[in-house]
Amino acid sequence: MTKNPGGGGGSVVAGRAGGIPEHRLKSMAVSAAHSNAEFFCPDGRATLRESRATTVTGRPAHTVALKVSHRDCGTLHLRLTLASVDDDRSAFLIGLATWAERDVAGREMVDAVLADASLL
């Protein structure tokens, strides 16, 4: 986790998964984002902030951003991008940052890392 001077912080994790057809990227990305929100903030309330098709290194992808709130774990910014590598493989990036209305540096840092990602 990286901390910024305003007190917030963020983390980005990458991984791989099995193949996902392009027409299922959106539904799988939304489902994965909500599943991760539940994992990182059990019983939290997830609000969809963004859901859009995109590309990563020219490959089809889908990005979802959630605001996740709970009295015990505070408020988090979760951004997940799911990219189709080929018929047999996909890759994902999950970014988490603390959410402070006046301090957007953590969210911007996570968003910048995910926006600059590429497939190897």
Description:
There is one protein chain. With 120 residues, this protein is of the alpha+beta class. The protein has a single domain (10-115), classed as Protein Transport Mog1p, Chain A, CATH 3.40.1000. 22% of the residues lie in helices and 49% in strands. The chain is built from 2 helices and 6 strands, in the order ββαββββα. The protein has helices spanning 25-40, 105-115; strands spanning 2-3, 9-18, 45-56, 59-70, 74-86, 89-98. It has a 6-stranded antiparallel beta sheet, sandwiched between helices. Mean pLDDT is 83; it is low at 1-5.
Layout: helices, strands, pairs:
Elements: E1 2-3, E2 9-18, H1 25-40, E3 45-56, E4 59-70, E5 74-86, E6 89-98, H2 105-115
Overall average pLDDT: 83
The number of domains is 1
Q: How many DSSP H or I helices?
A: 2
Largest sheet: 6 strands, antiparallel
Note the overall shape: globular
